[in-house]
């Protein structure tokens, strides 16, 4: 079975798109950071790197 391409995609590629989508839905960048950190296990400093 082939792996889905999202599993091979770097967070750095999708992060800006998540922020844009969240802002369109009246959410904040901080909310996106909190959720991505929760999902990935990164801390906010690690996410920025």
Summarize the structure in words.
The protein is mainly alpha-helical. The chain has one domain (5-48). 63% of the residues lie in helices and 0% in strands. The chain has 3 helices and no strands. The protein has helices spanning 11-24, 29-40, 44-48. The model has no long low-confidence stretch (mean pLDDT 86).
Give a short synopsis of this structure:
The chain contains 3 helices and no strands.
* Helix-residue proportion: 55-70%
Low-confidence spans: none
Largest sheet: none
User: Could you give the distance between the termini?
Assistant: 32 Å
Rg estimate, integer Å? 12 Å
Structural class by secondary-structure content: mainly alpha
Shape assignment: globular
Q: Strand portion, in percent?
A: under 5%
Domain count: 1
Average pLDDT, all residues: 86
Total strands: the figure is 0
Number of helices: 3
- State the order of secondary-structure elements, H for helix, E for strand: HHH
List keywords for this structure.
49 residues, globular, mainly alpha
Would you spell out the secondary-structure blueprint of this structure?
Layout: H1 11-24, H2 29-40, H3 44-48
Helix pairs in contact: 1-2
């Amino acid at each position: 079975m082939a792996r889905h391409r999202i599993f091979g995609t770097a967070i750095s590629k999708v992060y800006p798109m998540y922020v844009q989508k969240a802002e369109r839905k009246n959410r904040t960048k901080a909310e996106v950071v909190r959720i991505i950190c929760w999902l990935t296990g990164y801390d906010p400093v690690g996410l920025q790197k």
